[in-house]
Amino acid sequence: MTKLHVRKGDTVVVLAGKDKGKEGKVVAAFPKKGKVTVEGVSVVKRHSKPSQKNPQGGIVEKESPISSSNVMIVCPACKKPTRIKKVAVGDGFARACKKCGEVIDK
After folding, report:
1. Which partner from 61, 81, 100, 103 sits 20 to 30 angstroms from 73, CA to CA?
2. How far is residue 84's CA from residue 99's CA, in Å, rounded to a whole number?
3. Domain check: are 19 and 60 in the same one?
4. Dihedral, 71, 93, 80, 100 alpha carbons, nearest 10
5. pLDDT digits (tens, 9 = 90+) for 1-57
6. Together in a domain, 25 and 70
7. Does residue 40 lie within any of the structural domains?
């Protein structure tokens, strides 16, 4: 299983692809596939048959996963896209901003 540098709930900026420069929250992370789903990014249209949940059916817009290598975490303290470093906190490790040194995990 691969470990990702982003987690569900992190704010990220897209580095590559058709949505380059867009910012959003990570809705879901898929470590085995190395992909993340970002809110409002890579929106695709899917045709859905009528069901009990959606009796009308029709065209539904939803976010599709993008590669985790194409996103960079935005530091909550300095509000800049940054790489992360491991910092010893207590008996474990936490993620911290490489630019300002602020711990991202609380």
Report:
1. 61
2. 9
3. yes
4. -150
5. 578 999 999 999 999 999 999 999 999 999 999 999 999 999 999 999 999 998 999
6. yes
7. yes
